[in-house]
Amino acid sequence: MDQQRFTIGDAVRYGWDTMKNNFAYFVVIVIISWFAEGVPSSLQAILGKNNGGLNALFGIIGFVVSLFVGMAFIKIGLRFTAGEKADFDDLWSAYPALFRYLLGVILYALIIIGGLILLIVPGIIWGVKYQFFGFFIIDEGREPTNALTRSGQITKGVKGYLFLFNLAQLGIFILGILACVVGLLAAIPVNLVAQAYIYRRLLATEARGQAEPVQPTPQAGEPAQQNPPAQPPTN
User: Fold this and answer.
1) DSSP per position, the chain
2) In this structure, how many other beta carbons lie within 10 angstroms of the beta carbon of residue 125?
3) Which of 4, 14, 76, 81 is the most buried (most CB within 10 A)?
4) What is the pLDDT of residues 216-226, one digit of tens each?
5) What is the Cα–Cα distance from 40 to 46, expressed in whole angstroms?
6) For residue 90, what are the contacts with CB-CB under 8 A and spacing of at least 6?
């Protein structure tokens, strides 16, 4: 396990500092997301209680809104971890990726369900392995299957540590709920920025590893390989 790619403490600290420095912005963003997701579900509960058609309609609307919220949180996390200032436009600016993100969510859910059927553990492993698919769709504009593949590549060797990070995020979320729910106004931003921080750290580590040439190891009894002599310039 290559724990040098990131540390849980650094990720959470980065998320915490970003949240503190932009607290007013995050409060508005979280409240808007709660309101946007809460309206369809409330209407579904009130108006669709005795009407299957309305119930299904508001359910679909609520699901689409949740997709927009998920994409917005990824975009906002990416902006802050790139050293930029996020804006309210980021709540909807990722809309061109909606259908690719939707397909990615469906594929990711099917992978996890399939893994859970296989004695649960594979579902947990695959859930961690492919958890950054949305970042590749929003950040690099990749297709869903390619985004899942790339997520599997950058999480290679750190899935156990990522699992611990996910548990830490769950703990932060629970603390936010225990703090009279108001704590979620801080917990949600900390988690979304910390997740984006780790995504960027994994990408940066992968890039450094690819940039470092691998030197062949000489076999026993063989002289070390020498660099070929420089060729003189030709006229």
Assistant:
1) --GGG--HHHHHHHHHHHHHHTHHHHHHHHHHHHHHHHHHHHHHHHTSTT-HHHHHHHHHHHHHHHHHHHHHHHHHHHHHHTT----GGGGTTTGGGHHHHHHHHHHHHHHHHHHHHTTSHHHHHHHHHTTTHHHHHHHH---HHHHHHHHHHHTTT-HHHHHHHHHHHHHHHHHHHHTTTTTHHHHHHHHHHHHHHHHHHHHHHHHHHHHSPPPPPPPTTSPPPPPPPPPPPP-
2) 16
3) 76
4) 544 444 444 44
5) 10
6) 72, 75, 76, 79
